[in-house]
Task: inverse folding
């Protein structure tokens, strides 16, 4: 953010964790009461990790565990101390171990949600509006398409029911797959699931794309690839040809030429237009005008090359991988890592996500007598639901938790 004030940021973080961070909701979520009602120590075997700034130095604290919400809140407040020049920059969620995690002890990770992580910079090859960590409404459409493709794969192909979608606060999304059998899955199962979702099309060499999609006709392809194509196809003209003008990019042109050559579609006139033109619409319309039995497959390969989800696979395939939790504050943007509705992902705009300065301003309007601590010196009233810009995200989170813990009617 412009004119970033580190001291004010750390002051605001203390206030946020004191009054606005949804500790009870986080604990209720990670307790999975429906599955673990008799198991009183389930939550206390979950690893939390924290990134701290102490006197300008970054410190990482792993293997932290808490008995309940009060213990977590005490830790958050004790470690956000202006007097000690200490602030918690972010918190990560780790695995559930066979015993309460402590540094130096031999531990066995038993459970962890599979988290699907997609970062916008994975699309740098095909986006022209922004690069790196920067995002805008135009390039965010890549992640909207990714959600559209992944949703039926998760809910229909794998029969999953409980997927929490969370904005990372800067340039990406995290999909927390929370179904009980998924949390207990081995690294081999996790790798197989991600291997199914992460087909080698997006962000791959042209030869790998051709190898992955090696049929002559679309109807011969795996149903998941067909479905991904039919989902992505309506977005291609607006996102790739118009918003991004992606086909003018040299690396994209090279891949297209390889795909067309392998399909025996490429001729000298078409090759010259692709090489010389900087107009994606012209390039695409020229490709589409070719007369070839393999044209449909070539078009599919090009469209999925540009729009298929680009997963950060290593985040998802190991049970003990740490990942930033919901309702963190991203230190680079000061945006809150809020959940969004995966079934209506096109309505979420990351640039509208609440920011720390704005929610602190709104909190200042609440009378001081409502902010006083309770009997425990570390327990302060949760005022997050009185902050208008946070309310819909808390509601989404509460609804997700309620759906998970709702008993099934047999």
Result:
């Amino acid at each position: 953010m412009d004119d970033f004030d580190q001291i004010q940021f750390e002051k605001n973080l203390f206030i946020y964790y004191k009054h606005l961070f949804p500790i009870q909701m986080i604990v209720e979520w990670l307790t999975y009461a429906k599955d673990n009602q008799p198991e009183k120590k389930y939550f206390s075997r979950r690893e939390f990790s924290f990134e701290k700034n102490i006197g300008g130095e970054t410190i990482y604290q792993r293997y932290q565990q808490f008995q309940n919400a009060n213990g977590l809140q005490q830790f958050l407040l004790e470690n956000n101390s202006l007097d000690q020049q200490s602030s918690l920059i972010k918190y990560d969620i780790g695995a559930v171990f066979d015993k309460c995690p402590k540094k130096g002890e031999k531990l066995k990770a038993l459970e962890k949600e599979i988290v699907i992580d997609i970062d916008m910079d994975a699309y740098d090859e095909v986006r022209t509006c922004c690069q790196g960590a920067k995002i805008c409404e135009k390039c965010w459409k890549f992640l909207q398409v990714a959600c559209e493709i992944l949703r039926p794969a998760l809910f229909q192909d794998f029969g999953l029911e409980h997927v929490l979608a969370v904005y990372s606060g800067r340039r990406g999304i995290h999909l927390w797959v929370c179904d009980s059998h998924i949390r207990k899955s081995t690294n081999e199962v996790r790798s197989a699931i991600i291997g199914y979702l992460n087909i080698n099309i997006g962000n791959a060499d042209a030869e790998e794309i051709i190898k992955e999609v090696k049929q002559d006709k679309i109807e011969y392809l795996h149903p998941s690839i067909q479905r991904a194509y039919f989902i992505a196809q309506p977005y291609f003209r607006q996102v790739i040809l118009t918003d991004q003008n992606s086909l003018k990019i040299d690396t994209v042109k090279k891949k297209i030429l390889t795909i067309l050559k392998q399909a025996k579609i490429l001729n000298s006139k078409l090759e010259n237009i692709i090489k010389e033109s900087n107009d994606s619409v012209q390039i695409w319309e020229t490709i589409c005008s070719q007369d070839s039995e393999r044209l449909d497959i070539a078009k599919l390969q090009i469209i999925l090359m540009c729009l298929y989800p680009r997963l950060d696979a290593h985040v998802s395939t190991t049970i003990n991988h740490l990942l930033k939790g919901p309702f963190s504050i991203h230190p680079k943007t000061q945006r809150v890592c809020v959940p969004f509705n995966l079934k209506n992902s096109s309505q979420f705009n990351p640039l509208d996500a609440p920011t720390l300065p704005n929610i602190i301003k709104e909190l200042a309007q609440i009378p001081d007598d409502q902010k006083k601590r309770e009997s425990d010196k570390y327990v302060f009233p949760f005022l997050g639901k009185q902050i208008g810009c946070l309310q819909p995200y808390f509601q989404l989170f509460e609804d997700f938790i309620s759906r998970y813990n709702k008993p099934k009617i047999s």
